[in-house]
Give the backbone structure.
Amino acid sequence: MRVQIATRHCKISDEALLRTTEQIEKLERYEPLMSSAEVVYFEEKHAKNIEVILHISGTAPIVGGGEGTDFRTALDRVVERLGRMLKKQRGRRLDHQAPKLSDAAPE
């Protein structure tokens, strides 16, 4: 998976960039068809914000955001939110499939 990171009006350490890549790649366990992710770091007044756009093959992109007093907490929040969104989306997709013919056949 390709992770693209951008910053607006702020500077991010190399350690934070590495941690971001690791956390976003962990989301791939919920959705194996994930092709890329765009992460945007930005500051507004006293809050640090992160916005993540996940591109998944065959579906619309998933967008999540997180806010915190520092970028570490904002990253944790956005990863948690995206994890819940991906689980929910996958559950919806898997729950609405027809039963197998072998299971539905009367005995």
